[in-house]
Amino acid sequence: MMSQSQNETLTRVGPGTPLGNLLRRYWYPVAAEVELEKRWTKRVRLLGEDLVLYRDRSGNLGLIAERCPHRGASMAYGIPEENGLRCPYHGWCFDASGQCIDQPNEPADSTFKHRVRISGYRVQKLGGLIFAYLGPEPAPLLPRYDAFAVEPAIRVMGQAVLPVNFLQIMENSLDPVHTEWLHGHYHEFIQQELGRETKVAFSRHHVKIAFDPFAYGIIKRRLLEGQSEDSDDWRVGHPVVFPYILAVGSGGLGTYAFQMRIPIDDTHTWHVWYNAYVPGPGVEIPEKLQKLCVYDVPWQDEHGEFITDYIDGQDIMCWVTQGAIADRTDERLGTTDKGIILFRKMLMEQIQRVEQGLDPLGVIRDPAQNELISLPVERKKHHFSEGFESVTMRFQTRYCPVVRDLIDLFRTVGVK
Ligand code: FES
Ligand SMILES: [Fe+2]
Question: For the chain, which domains are there?
Fold first, then answer.
């Protein structure tokens, strides 16, 4: 249980808040590269700030405040220039640093523009994504985690905007036993209601769970009934990469799966499921699968009800029904919630580090450390033991427009 003020400290993400200051020390995806191929701008709301990502006519990217400082029109409707973005209303032009570089209707000798500046943030590309950094300089390196950096790989990305604070989604990742119920027994119940008798690997009982802090966050491990302590689930586990990524393992494939919970503001999160599939040596990746495939993940049906017959939809139902910001003042934590308590403690400690002028956990400044960061994940995950096709169709990947191509490609290399 927490006090109201503790709950606010751990959930407010805006500029100048303790958590907002911590979260600004990390890079976040703001778009897929393909999104800016056919258009010039994309509206971005990140950590409570309204921004515009744009591509100028030289091909450079910029991320600046959405509101024009002249009289407030949206730069999302701006005109791309050789070096910057011009406001549609009266033509003021801003470069990627946010500096005003032209005011076409002011006198030619005016110095006014030199004194007009808006926020302009760093952006960088990796793994088909565009990342942004909103924190103080010097900016740390953009981490080259395996899913972003492994090659050659097929990459797909599902997305949904969820009307909840990011923390309750992250807490779900420190809560291994929910899988046994929500994705196990509840899933079986839903299937039963639909007239399908099923028993799924997820419903296997947890014998014990463990959490180990490491250089990039917390590794979560589980031992399921009937498993030996040599199993990957217990020996290796998988990490929560502090502060907003969950990396999960696979059923023996070259798959890297990230779930990213990107805080839009206090009550909205951009949920991104980012998978990289490495088909193995000698397998040619068809042209169709060479670019990052971006798709929407639906979580409500036409009546506004939750879609609970797939794993991620089940998670979303729980996150959203907890409320926009989960009320932690009347929760009743049990013994299996120790991972959640550890994550909250880690957030508080890292807030303090930032307040002391130190880098928080996982911030990377040494290029030698950043060539390729291989995260520890179970490669033989019990939950995925039912086979690639069956598991893939039970996750949000069932909405991926190239999922059949992926299943077929993996079948050709003997994976079913
Ligand atoms: S409002 Fe942007 S130039 Fe006037
Ligand atoms: Fe889950």
Answer: 27-133 (2.102.10.10), 146-412 (3.90.380)
